[in-house]
Design a protein that fits this description.
- This protein is α+β, with helices and mostly antiparallel strands and about 325 residues long.
- The chain is built from seven helices and 19 strands.
Length: about 325
């Protein structure tokens, strides 16, 4: 019974020191038992303070003028959010049967939320042909698409749709389970469920991007043949002062870099064949061979003339 990892069994067996308020971390796969005894490890926590956190989904923002729009996806480092709109990274937290234990866990600083005077945000720029869907709650789906998934839907679109029972996606039909709690309350009570107000508000950041000349220039120069772009925006006092492109930085270099063996633009066979450094090496080799040939020819001809002249003198 201990090998099953059942919480009630463990609490009953170890009731002498495990209290009801304790959170258990049962390592059932690491327990070893024989006919008379078991050995293993049980970790229990005496939780003094707990906070409710919820997972959040980051949707891209649709940026750019009509006909040249892209989905801008900000990079967030936390996975969950608390009631104070602070994000947290729970990667290194311990799992228990009641929840996660994060010892001395502090909130994650998110530069894309404009939490300071100077913020540097990392973006992934996707084309409007990028499509993505996830169900975040019963009959609530979040989609990123350039096709209509519900009637009269403006596209391209990035957002969440409520009260969905059937949806067509990528030539497949999805049936979503109903929200029994919502259906019951709407049917028997004249009250509506309030939607939690835990959200990461990016309205202020989107307004900065919309009016930024640098951002519009970056969108205009995006290479359409590349699926995803990496951009970095630097915001100082509610103004975007710099837009850097990881792709542009990787392919731009000084003219003398080619003599140091650095040529990020040389990707195909023909690029290497006509590489300037290779051309210079070939020219040097050819000239060296020609120089050796000429020197050898002059040396041999001179020796032959002396020998003939000496023989004629004897006659």
């Amino acid at each position: 019974m201990l090998l099953t990892g059942n919480e009630e069994v463990w609490r009953t067996v170890f009731n002498s020191f495990v209290r009801e308020k304790h959170w258990l971390d049962i390592k059932a796969p690491k327990i070893r038992c024989n006919d008379t005894s078991c050995t293993g490890k049980l970790v229990y926590y005496n939780v003094t303070k707990s906070n409710i956190m919820c997972k959040f989904v980051v949707l891209p923002m649709l940026m750019g003028p009509e006909g040249n729009q892209h989905f801008w996806v900000p990079t967030f480092y936390g996975q969950v959010i608390d009631s104070n709109n602070s994000t947290h990274d729970l990667t290194f937290c311990d799992d228990t049967l009641e929840g996660k234990i994060c010892k001395l866990q502090s909130a994650v600083y998110e530069p894309c939320l404009l939490q300071n005077t100077v913020n540097k945000c990392e973006w992934t720029i996707m084309p409007t042909s990028y499509r993505w869907m996830v169900e975040v709650a019963p009959q609530v789906i979040c989609v990123v698409t350039d096709r209509q998934v519900v009637p009269k839907m403006r596209v391209p679109f990035a957002g969440c749709i409520h009260n969905i029972t059937v949806i067509q996606w990528e030539n497949e039909t999805f049936m979503l389970n109903p929200d029994n709690e919502l259906s019951t309350k709407v049917l028997w009570q004249d009250t509506a469920l309030e939607v939690p107000n835990w959200d990461l508000n990016l309205t202020r950041l989107k307004a900065l991007l919309d009016k930024s000349i640098e951002v519009h220039a970056a969108i205009k120069n995006l290479n359409r043949s590349i699926t995803g772009h990496k951009l970095f925006t630097t915001v100082v006092s509610d103004k975007i002062v710099k837009v850097g492109s990881a792709i542009a930085d990787a392919t731009s270099h000084h003219w003398w870099d080619i003599f140091m063996g650095y040529s990020p633009s040389a990707r195909t066979t023909m690029d290497w064949v006509v590489h300037p450094l290779l051309v210079v090496m070939i020219v040097v080799i050819v000239l060296s061979i020609w120089n050796c040939y000429v020197a050898y020819g002059i040396c041999c001809k001179k020796q032959k003339m002396i020998m003939v002249s000496y023989t004629n003198g004897q006659h």
